[in-house]
Amino acid sequence: MFSNFGEYMYALLFAPFKKVRKSINQWYLFFKVIGKLFDNTKEDVFRVRSESMIATASELMLEQHGRDRGMIRLKGESAESFRNRLSMAFIIASQAGTNEAIRYVAKSFGYDNVSIETSADSEKWAEVTVQFIGGDIVLDDQDLLLTQLNQVKPASALLTVSKEQRFTAQQYIGTAYIIGKVITIRQG
């Protein structure tokens, strides 16, 4: 209905203050000037609100959010991946030392499925293998993954990282059993 704050304030005035033509009405001129200031302030407040939240922050402010949390943007990491990792930082920190934290770290790097296996050897009770399986992979740096996992792992665990990539492809597997003949099947 009103295009700016000044027009709104002018509309609230009592009728006797509006009898003078707008071009010479001191109230109208005052609200026109003050209205612009309020409109600009409103835009600034909305911008500050959107920049203060990780989900809506610009790339420049994401860097600041990362510094506030002690996290840097990794080489080759997209802005959305960094945003996702920053969003999960509190959840990961609150569950540090548990297997769930390891799963959240993996999820923040784009790995959907994680298998955490303890060593079967009783003398190697602290050794744990974390197997990353598929997903929308953000970064494929095994050393970096191990570094990030070591920040949230149980204190006594010695982690080993393994990755399994699953690709969709056609595979021809055939077997035949015929008595008295040897059949060799090769994929060509």
The largest sheet, given as strand count, sense and whether it forms a barrel, is: 3 strands, mixed
The proportion of residues in beta strands is 5-15%
The number of E-state strands comes to 3
Q: What structural class is derived from the secondary structure elements?
A: mainly alpha
Low-confidence stretches: 183-188
Radius of gyration, CA atoms, in whole angstroms: 31 Å
| Strand arrangement across the biggest beta sheet | 1-2-3
In terms of topology, how is this protein built?
Blueprint: H1 5-12, H2 26-51, H3 59-68, H4 79-94, H5 99-108, E1 113-118, E2 127-133, H6 142-152, E3 158-164
Helix pairs in contact: 1-2, 3-4, 4-5, 5-6
Q: What brief labels describe this structure?
A:
single chain; 188 residues; mainly alpha; 3-stranded mixed β-sheet; 6 helices; 43% helix; disordered C terminus
